[in-house]
Amino acid sequence: METNLCVAGFGGQGVMSLGKFLADATCNSTDKNVTFFPSYGAEQRGGTANCFVVISDEDIGAPLGDVMDDLIVMNGPSLAKFLPTLKKGGRLFINSSIVPDKIDREDVTLIKAPVTELALEMGNSKVLNVIMLGVYVGYTEVIEPAIVWDTIEHKLASKPKLLPLNKKAFEKGLELGRAQR
Amino acid sequence: MARVFMKGTEAVAEAAVRAGCRFFAGYPITPQNEVPEYLARRLPEVGGVFVQGESEVASINMVYGAASAGTRAMTSSSSPGVALKSEGISYCAAARIPMVYANFARGGPGVGSIQPAQQDYLQATKASGNGGFRMPVFAPSTVQEAVDMTYEAFDWADRDRTPVLILADGVVGTMMEPVVLPEMKSDEEIAAIKASKRDWACIGHKLDYAHRAWIQPGQWSTTKMQEVNEEADALYKSWKARSEEYMVEDAEVVLTAYGISGRIAKSAVNVLRAQGIKAGLIRPITVYPFPYDAYDRLDYSKVKGILDVEMSIPALFVEDVAVAVKDRCKIETCLCSGGNIMSRDAVIAAAKKIMEG
Predict the structure, then answer these.
(1) Fewer CB in a 10 Å sphere around the end CB: N or C, chain A?
(2) Separation of alpha carbons B168 and B123, rounded Å
(3) What is the pLDDT of residues B180-201, one digit of tens each?
(4) Does A40 touch chain B (CB under 8 A)?
(5) Would an 8 Å CB–CB cutoff place B168 in contact with chain A?
């Protein structure tokens, strides 16, 4: 069993952190193989940023697959760029605050979460990635939510003030993800 | 040992520290900047020295100096930066200076592209500088291999007084994977390693002509120069190549690839086998010395063809494969370049084409 995930959005939306939290949690808590591969290039503000996470019971070949099982899209341009890479029957997670939910493919499952708005309601626009991570974990159950939270907690250890907000964000995401199963 | 989740570049840097590396000089270039970034913080913690040189040329010559004084020393760069270091690398080889360097290769030629590639194969294995020297070249395909090879490279370098190259690429450098880190060498062990170099290194000798250490990247006497080269050649011939052979016993199509392409080809073999196609893999672990013998062990009455898989256009690694195969079967290539990463689907399609004849 191998899962190929692509996370894509604007630079600054925390797509790299989202992928890293998930991959790191998998490394820390399971015997599975896992890779995290960031895109890099002549990046500029407002451009797209994306990363690839592969989780597998077998040895992993390429850290980015030819087709994606799951796709998390945080902004409009990323949808256009990466939707063609999503497999038939793949799962598409969109930030429905800013990504139009009219998808011109009927062979994928759409999971929606208005994470930009939710983050603003929580008082910090930066937690949108943690909400989306919660949505993904809640929907897919790819890994135990408690383990993902432990990893986030560990990574944010130097900024304890941010923990309650991130906990709230993650739990909100889990709830939204589970509700759409 | 617990596994930790690390980026390839940082894992290589940590492995170097654990192997006893106490000097690093480098100059920034994508995609290996996390090596100097990591060591700038880490080396002072263990009493080591980090220098960001004013150039690649300065950095390699600082390594030449530090290693001449018996310290385990390292530099790293990416393709165009490694090319700039070639003079210093050749000098280290000539003066028989043990040092380790890593190339997180990117697109080429020229400044090329900053994304991963395998366009430096011939440079790495045949001519990393002027003058016709050789050195061990490791080709890691995973972050764990990059760590283990870096750790071992320092021992190999010291044992044989030779530079050792870790030929990685931008994928192995920038990806994160779980790794088990090797044991940290103690200060006592590191001191003992340094002391063992006393008979040649500049670590405090009397100033009289007979006893002082000579670090010489060349010879005035033609006789001596030939002797030095003969000695080095005997050393090069003593080195043993390493390879991974995977499902080759009954293979009808054999994929061959090194580094990042090696692991992608291996996963292609698994897919092909699941579809009932008898595929196998030869993956050189050292690309110098090259594991020519692995190709001699194939059953050529069964093999319909070899598929060379590499992230380089033109194909370069295929030249060593051709020497190894000796016209015993046909060789096809599956290539990409420019910073594109090898597609497993493309590898599978190319292997099937060989099977169709």
Answers:
(1) N
(2) 13
(3) 999 999 999 999 999 999 989 9
(4) yes
(5) no
